[in-house]
């Protein structure tokens, strides 16, 4: 069962509400002897942190992470390493502005989870969205930072490839550019356009959706657990579980439906070390639920932020008519900050599948993926 | 862990290879006292069965299901009912033509799982695709037939909404039409077009992809288990786990990314029994991972069948160059028979989430979904 | 998978080391709308707290619990209630005396987990036993306090029934007496004897084992999930997972092996509301893995504390001979403080099985156990 | 969740009722490339098979096992090997005497699960005990035969060490003797005594309990997953889940409670390859939930068979008084056939823990347990 736990062998259990004392997670199943300190996790958190540009929420959260357990100094190397016991990570909530919630506590904001939490649980922590707040994704990013450490040789990067109806131009794709603009856009020209575009939307109190692409390179062939723990199925769940996501694609995704078999088949030619070289990657690095060794390519669609200034028709929890608009701090395009979250989810899925492969297949099948060892990580 | 098990409380474990003695599944966690006989399961299997038109594979499998356990005659009603113990379902493989596999056993068919199974496990049952064959989905359909029985008042229907690059015309949508053509198309005109289109492709030995839409009506609000067991996340995993699926959408899906917040928000007005009436359904019936009570709408993209006549470049498992083409029985559009499979997966997810809701919330929150009882089902 | 998670639907994940910053747990799956405040959890923790008499370790830990998430004020009643989201509980470690660990860090104390943690993980937090310290059981007791809240009408009590080779006299059993002596003994005379006995052992720097009995009254018939989630099987795992436990019994336990069928069968006579009345309880309240409605009776054996003054032969982690003795704070009979821990584990198992029953059977079978509702709890 | 599934990574799901068409299991997670044929499984099943002496039930079941999936011929060696996909095993029920069940169907036999299944599920397959029949354990033994194959170098043997109140004499322990008498007694003199003793009980229509001991040699140090997946906790659940078991012990078990710390601590001296040599084994091969490398020793108590000729007071399912006695085929000491079942459960736990260890720790910590490889197994 997995209400608030993600993963099977690399298990992440998150907790916490937006305006409670703290959020955090417990990571269970992490291998021992992996160098890990808080600064590495903090570096990933800082990429997701709010308030870094005028295009994200102005909530001021330092998102400072503390490691409460599961690490110890290895006196042989002087480094802090994992011990194989659960790693608890804590992020205190700091910017919980005390404010008047009377407007929000009884009203169901359209597009939000207000109504569904209330109808399911009979109560909800309405302050800042409570458990359904995107703030929970900070815990995912922290866990993802740990997951990356057990994937030697794998590079997981994400980029925003569409904002509203405006896609980037893929011929201008530059991974370095992703670090240089506040949108994680790999296309500098698109980034310049998004700046004006989002400023305009922000001033109107409106919002817009986005499409994010995550690419994992260096994934060895053989990861994935058919039939129901397929690599692509778990990626789909992982990405769809991110707040506001409405669609997921692997490789060509929906475009594959329009292709003929001849177009879609990724041809192969003999490659290195007995492994085939693929001549294309329509499959996005997955066949039969198992990685092929090609780059893993997945995309997800984020709906526009539901918090907008324009009043929308709604009801109160007493069944009365009401119009709702949202003032105050919010992300005009919540898809932007979803980029590091998407990376983190892919990292968690790959770490989990790596441990699953190691459990079932181990060394009994020669495998072109060096075993994780302290020296490597 | 879930290599071959799907679901948490309504758990389905499938087994079997395409050309082994049998395929089947064990359903664990099914509530007791639900009337169930083999004929009900058979009716669903017959919808997926191969060889029913010239547009699907000509393999002749009766797909006759036997119930091996978990049911017993209720002497009070004379009906056979579930007992709460595991329900084992067996489907023997009948049409395993003995043939020469020398062409296939050492060659990696592009787009197939041949290479990935071999690289992962060091061996594969190459006859008819073995475990990675779409034949495994018969077990899913059988399980889905049982899942439907524990969802009183819920109607789950699927339709093919695009074949190759050709979508249906949604203004002509007619659920009754879905039963009348061999494509599960809700648009009679599109069905007529598909007939010619697919005949042409079939004669060329080619293949094409498809998009399938599943709609579940009567789903009560409150189903779903945030954060990682969200209803939409589990649907995404369920649908992506079907053979050849490359994309999944909930509600507006990828189109939502292009919308502004004002367009995407589903407004509400007071409805019956204190429940809101939604004025639109961009969300596809899910907010915050929990059902809203609106129809649940999801879509998935199926890639073109990888078995085609046109030779494609590939390698053998010894690393030698080879060209591969596939003769013999195959589905030119494997998406067609994916319709009942998609319905079954949605049914399994909903049954599981229903039991999860019953576990955590039970009667402690008044809920507009009558408790399952023998009388109702 | 469950390295550090206990339970299926009422899931408790614990974390933390004895001398790290904090220990704690995350409870996932708790039903919503259950009144819960920290004071209720604290009351249980105080029963297990060290340093309350001269017969337990003199470590001074206030064991103050904080609720980090999962509760919210119900404005209808003014009470704080659960919200259905994960409940994170934190207990900071306060009395981590900074001391010289050079004696312990390289030596394997006989009977301790020093060697096995080292051989498994390659590293261990040696301060106070780290993760293998009995300190972890504080998190279990906290979780058990929450579990009790979802079991209306069930009373779970424990007692020490044997210390070293000295059993209590069952004819003097008095539940009230359990609260009055520092040993949780239900027999006042035995308690008086234990006082002298343990003082003597303590002064010799020795230790002794114990047998604990837990009785749960008010458990309705029907709880348990055959075949592998049987109520007694889960109790056995729960109790055996407590530090230093070497044996578990249900009902007559090992004594049942010596009985004849006529003696062991618990006869029945018609009782109230169509339920049978049992004339004896050799079964300890479980038949076929399902509760009978009789009191649930289980016992567990705790080995003597391994920390003793008498030097014992051992090795260092470099393979050198060494003699080890343990100075400083320790429990001469660790079984004493295991009483509230055993109660907590039984509460967690029952809460989990209750939710499992509610999931699979719900209201479809009339059941003599009132549904949990806010009013009841 | 685990109603009918046992294990986490080596997962066994059993199904079937005593008098239904078949019983069986699905094993998921078995590593690939392990030589396996039906004869090996059959050999284990034959040890548990009823009707082999006058001391077990006279039901005549050939218990012939069929492998339905998960194996394939490895053309390199000509041997049938596992493929990494689920292994389904089927055992058809043959000796289902058609008989009159009117005596049993409405009466609750004392000590049986009749009442508890009925009160929980509202219905039960009463023929031969249905799902609660010891017949289910045949599926466990079959799964155990597969589990043994992935534990190179580990020897798992069981013996009956007490029948009724009569223990064996441990000084006469001879593992070879276990094969030579129908009681699995390691003490030839005790076996001779049991023959007369059980003949007398059988003629009286009575029954008696037993204690079984399982010893696993060659278990490497490091197996076990603290805190809640401890090796001893999982063994306790595994053994307690066997029909009629009421107690479980590891190492000294309940006797440990009577010891002082000095007596109980297993001292160590430097051994081979840097591993310590233990000077005693009170711990039964487990410290802190992790194996020490010493022999794993566990015991379980089996209550007397509940089916006896002497009438016992009971009720019908309509609440009427009735006296019940059981005629016909039954085991006078069901503990005898529990010996191979206990071995199988220990094998399954060890296989599961081995895969868990391989997942979390892999090669990152040097481990004195050769990796499983096709050559070894």
TrEMBL record, chains A, B, C, D:
Required co-factors: FMNH2
EC number: 4.2.3.5
InterPro entries (alphabetical): Chorismate_synth, Chorismate_synth_AroC_sf, Chorismate_synthase_CS
GO molecular function terms noted in the UniProt entry: chorismate synthase activity; FMN binding
Pathway assignment: Metabolic intermediate biosynthesis; chorismate biosynthesis; chorismate from D-erythrose 4-phosphate and phosphoenolpyruvate: step 7/7
One cellular-component annotation, GO: cytosol
Subunit text: Homotetramer.
Family the UniProt entry places it in: Belongs to the chorismate synthase family.
Protein name (Swiss-Prot/TrEMBL): Chorismate synthase
Annotated organism of origin: Microvirga thermotolerans
């Amino acid at each position: 069962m997995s209400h608030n736990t993600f993963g099977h062998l690399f298990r992440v259990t998150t907790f916490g509400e937006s305006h409670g004392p703290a959020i955090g997670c417990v990571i269970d199943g992490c291998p021992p002897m992996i160098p890990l300190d808080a600064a590495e996790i903090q570096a990933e958190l800082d990429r997701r942190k709010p308030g870094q540009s005028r295009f994200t929420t102005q909530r001021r959260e330092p998102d400072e992470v503390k490691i409460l357990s599961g690490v110890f100094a290895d006196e042989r190397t002087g480094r802090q390493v994992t011990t194989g016991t659960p790693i608890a990570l804590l992020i205190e909530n700091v910017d919980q502005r005390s404010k008047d919630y009377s407007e929000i506590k009884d009203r169901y904001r359209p597009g939000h989870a207000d109504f569904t939490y209330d109808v399911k649980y009979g109560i909800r922590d309405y302050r800042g969205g409570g458990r359904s707040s995107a703030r929970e994704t900070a815990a995912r990013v922290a866990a993802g930072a740990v997951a990356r450490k057990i994937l030697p040789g794998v590079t997981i990067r994400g980029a925003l490839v569409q904002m509203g109806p405006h896609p980037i131009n893929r011929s201008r794709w530059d991974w370095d550019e992703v670090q240089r603009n506040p949108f994680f856009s790999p296309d500098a020209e698109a980034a310049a356009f998004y700046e004006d575009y989002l400023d305009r939307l922000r001033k109107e109190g409106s919002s817009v959706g986005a499409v994010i692409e995550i690419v994992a390179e260096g994934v060895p062939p053989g990861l994935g657990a058919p039939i129901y723990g397929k690599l692509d199925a778990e990626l789909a769940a992982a990405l769809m579980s991110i707040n506001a996501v409405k669609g997921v694609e692997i490789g060509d995704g929906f475009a594959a439906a329009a292709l003929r078999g001849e177009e879609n088949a990724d041809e192969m030619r003999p490659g290195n070390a007995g492994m085939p070289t693929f001549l294309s990657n329509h499959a996005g690095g997955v066949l039969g639920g198992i990685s092929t060794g090609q780059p893993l390519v997945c995309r997800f669609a984020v709906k526009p932020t539901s918090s907008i200034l324009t009043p929308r028709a709604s009801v109160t929890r007493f069944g009365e008519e009401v119009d709702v608009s949202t003032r105050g701090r919010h992300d005009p395009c919540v898809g932007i900050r979803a980029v590091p979250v998407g990376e983190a989810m892919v990292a968690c899925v790959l770490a989990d599948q790596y441990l699953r492969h190691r459990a079932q297949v181990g060394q009994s099948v020669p495998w072109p993926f060096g075993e994780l060892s302290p020296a490597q990580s």
